[in-house]
Structure formats: structure tokens, C-alpha cells
Amino acid sequence: MTISIKVDEAVQEWMKKKGRTIITVSLRATRTCCVGAEDVDISYKNPQNNNYMLTQHNGLFIYLDKGLPLRKNELHLSMMGKSIFSSIHIEGLMVQ
Fold first, then answer.
1. What keywords tag this UniProt record (predicted)?
2. Residue 92: which region, alpha, beta or left (left: phi > 0; alpha: psi -120 to 50)?
3. Model pTM?
């Protein structure tokens, strides 16, 4: 399966400023009092197992969990927040 990944320039700059080259995207189970759910987890280190696809994009190594529920075969990485509260935002997943 081929996945098209768009990475905004702001993400490239933020990663460079932080001295990071790895983005790992996976799902994390979350529990509430009554219902379980899944949330997107973004980390900046190599994954712990082989259940990931590796894609390189302009010097970034992007690991995607093979079980990610994609809307289409497209992901868009952009920045969200300001200053020290900035983080990477991912569009294109079927996660609520």
C-alpha cells in the first residue's frame, strides 16, 4: 500500500529546531469510565517493534503503524499551537 504524505514546511522547521529526524505515528488505547477509545500517539523515537512502515520525506524518517485507520491513502502533517505549546497535527486518520 502506497501512502501519500504531505509535510508542511513548518513541521520541517520545527523538527530541525528540535534536532529531531524521527516521527513515529501509532494508536494508543485510552479508557474512560464507560467507553474505550483510540487516540493518535506521536513520538520522536524509533518504534519498539516491526509493526511499522518507514517513509522518508526531506530528511525525516516517518514510521507509520501498519494498523492506522486511514480515510484515504493520504496523511497531512502540520503544526498546531504556538510557541512552547506547538505540536504536530495529523490529518487523514479515521480517529475521533
1. Plasmid
2. left
3. 0.84
